[in-house]
Amino acid sequence: MKRTVRAALDEAAESIDATDARVLAMHAWGVSRAWLAANPREILTESQGARFDLLVAQRALGHPVAYLVGRREFWSREFAVGPDVLIPRPDTETVVESALARLSGEARVCDLGTGSGAIAVTLACERRGDHVVATDASPGALAVARANALAHGATVEFREGSWYAPVAGDAFDLIVSNPPYVAARDAHLAQGDLRFEPRGALTDESADGLASLREIIAGAPGHLLPGGWILVEHGYDQADACRSLLAAAGFRGLVSIADLAGIPRVAGGRRE
């Protein structure tokens, strides 16, 4: 039975969100949102219908839309994503905004646990004169990040390894990181998109989710130039803990920066 665009979208909306259905349709058929609105009576070919139905079925099972279409927007740029990396979220744009506010001149920047490269590539694009180094322990994640840097014409030096191991002996004006910070037994790990994202990028398996943050903050003074900053993303309830870790590591000028929802999301400090 032949189906129109409208019929296919209406049918999909019975099992998934209508907005998700439109995004999947645009991807499956290679069309724009304007085309969908202007052509509701267009008859789908059999292959068009099959591609769309498969995506709808996968979304109904919980697969993230970003993984199904292979991309997600971040800082007004599209980034390739896949099961090897976290899906970039608006919360993390707070890290970028905070970093840009603290950079001047030609700076050396290090992004620890870069994942898709969203932070590192964005900073490299916004500040073309900086030397940006990005590390990750996952070869799969680094492959995605390298592809994103190439797609956006960003110059980023990628190094494989855990946290500071790949940058031994190096010092930077700024260290940024969005590390795993979800507590091991947090119920959210078994809900929504998180079920399909790489667990190692979400949680460090510690009871409080702070193990990676502890390691990153404690090691930062040895990799920062005088006056250099560290900025880390953290969980909604970890601001006080991060502030204590930064103070214990000797950082001054401590900051706690809220995201657009008003939730403390980024903690930072300056090396004297």
In words, what does this structure look like?
The chain has 272 residues and is of the alpha/beta class. The protein folds into two domains: 5-61; 71-270, Rossmann fold. 36% of the residues lie in helices and 20% in strands. The chain has eleven helices and nine strands. It has helices at residues 5-12, 18-29, 33-38, 46-60, 65-69, 93-100, 118-126, 139-151, 199-202, 211-219, 239-248, and strands spanning 71-74, 77-80, 108-112, 131-136, 156-160, 172-177, 224-233, 252-258, 264-270. A seven-stranded mixed beta sheet has the order 5-4-3-6-7-9-8, with helices on both faces. Strand 4 (131-136), helix 8 and strand 5 (156-160) form a beta-alpha-beta unit. Helix 2 (18-29) packs across helix 4 (46-60), helix 6 (93-100) runs parallel beside helix 7 and helix 10 packs parallel to helix 11. The longest helix is centred in the first third of the chain and has 15 residues, at 46-60.
Strand content: 15-25%
Instruction: Work out the radius of gyration.
Output: 21 Å
- CATH architecture call of the largest domain: 3-Layer(aba) Sandwich
Main pleated sheet? 7 strands, mixed
Average pLDDT works out at 96
What is the strand arrangement across the widest sheet? 5-4-3-6-7-9-8
Sum up the overall morphology in one term.
Answer: elongated
